[in-house]
Amino acid sequence: xxxxxxxxxxxxxxxxxxxxxxxxxxxxxxxxxxxxxxxxxxxxxxxxxxxxxxxxxxxxxxxxxxxxxxxxxxxxxxxxxxxxxxxxxxxxxxxxxxxxxxxxxxxxxxxxxxxxxxxxxxxxxxxxxxxxxxxxxxxxxxxxxxxxxxxxxxxxxxxxxxxxxxxxxxxxxxxxxxxxxxxxxxxxxxxxxxxxxxxxxxxxxxxxxxxxxxxxxxxxxxxxxxxxxxxxxxxxxxxxxxxxxxxxxxxxxxxxxxxxxxxxxxxxxxxxxxxxxxxxxxxxxxxxxxxxxxxxxxxxxxxxxxxxxxxxxxxxxxxxxxxxxxxxxxxxxxxxxxxxxxxxxxxxxxxxxxxxxxxxxxxxxxxxxxxxxxxxxxxxxxxxxxxxxxxxxxxxxxxxxxxxxxxxxxxxxxxxxxxxxxxxxxxxxxxxxxxxxxxxxxxxxxxxxx
Length: 450
Fold this sequence. Notes:
Strand content: 15-25%
Shape: globular
């Protein structure tokens, strides 16, 4: 019996092609998924990686062998697959390894209506079945396979949610990182009063220009320079499967995902007064403040899309945002779509005459450290040391929703979380200004690394 514990993760499937993932493994994963969700059909999309067409076809073979039909949408961004799952009301499989290097591939699975499939919602069963091997279903007619192009429908759906027809003319540099944004952006922005200056739109799963991971500042350098060079109003960077977007202002400066979360939340609350907005505990405290100031109800969650999506469903939230630039919309089946978030930002920019830096400045109330990682031998021991040190100080409060969050009486705070996969502690600090952030960061790190 094969062991798939190394590739079937908490929320998706990821591994090195040829070593951990091959057509035989993926065929069994497809068959196991078909058993989990039943008929009548599964919708499948894939990114631009060299291995994606072969692996997605093998998955489709496994689905068909269980008597379940396949609708293939071909090349797609992850949020385009979620659109297909939601619109067609069918379970789906997206072949992508997002921002991981070229040798990787993976599968993101969802039930009908883009509802996520994780370890607790069926993924563990898929893994166990695929480890044993899944025989073809007996006495059933193999499923059919049809192809369907949903790109234009996807673009039209998004543009029904955000009206940019009245925008002032804008020039926007888009860095697709040789990922799926190079496929979806031209269709979404076709006919809008927005001049797109494309960077790295050529689909290439070998990522010849830079990693398709805009969370790493080094991958934004080209975009920042181009925005300034061409005098653009904004820049947008997408990750490999184009479900996350990062925004650059006209000065070439990054706009924090927390500020984008607050901006989009305000726009969504204008349409749905009093609505609930989800934010994870590492977003700026400006987010819940601004949501409350605009009549909304902020709800704080653990880090991770499964927690956000679960809370979206439980609370009926209208919107959710994470510090990692994932943005979730009730009108998008509670799924994350970087494209819709980008459209909101550009609509807000185009509705007024000021620059993006001025527009987003009102949402940037505090300074933040970004994530600082420390390699430690004993994560629990170091967290306990922090708790002991800060617990002795007056006015300090703790919560342990996700790792350890420490609130100081001057309004600053930090969160220390253990990595699930590496001997790392991840630190995020927020304070009134950069000097206060640096002082608090260094104080915490002296204990963590001491």
